[in-house]
Amino acid sequence: MMVDFSFSIPQTSLHDSLWGKFNKEDKLQWSRKTIVYVAGYTGNPRASDATALEAHYIKLGYNVWCLDEFFFYMTRYTNAAVLVRDIAGYVGKMLADLTQPGLLDPAKVEMISMSLGAHVMSPADRLDDSDADFVVVVVTNIDGNGMAAPVGHVNFYVNGGEFQVGDIPFIPCGTFCSHMKA
Q: For the chain, how many helices (H) and strands (E)?
């Protein structure tokens, strides 16, 4: 079951809005492991990658929460990159608040993200291995939108982390294509 963290801001604060959504949700099974999915720039919880991830982890018995930050990201990339810190603050506070009444066990939370979404998981400027007990990074585009530096505990560099194989023979997969292959 997927919980959609909509960022429509009513008269109350964003945090209160998110918390209210959890109080209304009666299908969460707090004893299960939970996946929190954060899409990248232009991603959203109804996209095919998010729904495929949701279906897979539900079959494995997880709760699946998909952050819908689309409203914030649908601006110029530079503005979206600045907003990542604010989004990270809200998500962090919400997850911390859910541990207080004993609902959410932090040891049972795993976070998955793509691209700019990975930085929502970091209180600093960018994702690094101090952000969680175990950080795995898959790099597909260091020549464009990716980072060459190893920032996780484990760093996979698909095809050297550079240009990826295209879907059409003899047509190269450029910067955008390679980044989307993540």
A: 5, 6
